[in-house]
Amino acid sequence: MPTDIESLSKFIVAGIEQTEGTESTTLKLYRTRNLSPGIYEGNTKKREYNGDDGRYQTTVTTGQHSKISFDCDFAGSGDINNIPAIDDLLRACGLNRAANPQGGYDYLIADSADVDSITVMFRRLVGRGDQASEKRYRRYPILAARGYVGIEWKAEEDPLFKFVDITGEYIRPVEESIPKIVFDYTDQADPLPIGTSNTPVAQIMGKDVCLHAMTISNYSGFEVSRTNAVNCDRTRLKPKPIEGSLTIKEPDWDKEFHIYEIAESHEKITRVSLLMEHGTSAGNTQRISCEEIQIHGVKDTDLSDGTLGKELSFTCLKKPVLTLF
Known about the structure:
mainly beta; 18-stranded antiparallel sheet; two-stranded antiparallel sheet; 2 helices; globular
């Protein structure tokens, strides 16, 4: 008979691979949201032969792979001396870690797309949970995986890392009986909602802005490309522009800055700085800085308090730096 699998019983463990395509020996458990797997995907081909009536065509999958997307808390390890668990995921999504001289770690967007690969083990608990006579799990391995990460901030909401299309080698899923897995999330601090008390810095060209939202859908600046050529079946990342949007309250044109003057590009390109800092305690503070962005779109928007806001589209003209400290 069919198996009962609770929809919220799914979870992942993951870790950087020492050798690409060989399962990582150090897998960490991650606290995720909106976990969305795509197991056994690829390109499909129809086989049509002469002499049949066109109805009985088989379908063949080529370039088979698996991928997974999910959100994680935009947070640090909780201890400035500990590398955050999120490190492995960021490295597999196009970022390289470097020690920050003032403490914590900088995550720098890689020059090369050939970044570290990761093993992802996606699991589901099978059966009736604690009432079952044994613990059975469905395990869906994904090896040699890479992807990209986005960032989403909204006032009064938890900020998120959005890991998208982490894609790797397809391995046939298995069912296994193992001891109950204890959900112990190490080096993963609790998130802090976006707002004045938790988000001390939000600046454009050194001027404070009333920030309602920020989204950088592809902070890594890479898109996922899966190849299946002979002797080189792997996931690579292809560079692309880093684009985002900011929703802010209408600035004072005289005392702060004239948003339309900054956005004008018909005579020259204006480059301005962006600085965002979230968190107030060591081990759970995050900073996003970019020396040069171009604001190239300005739209009116009604804010939740009834005032006029501006939704700004921007492109990073230098690589931003993410610091966890």
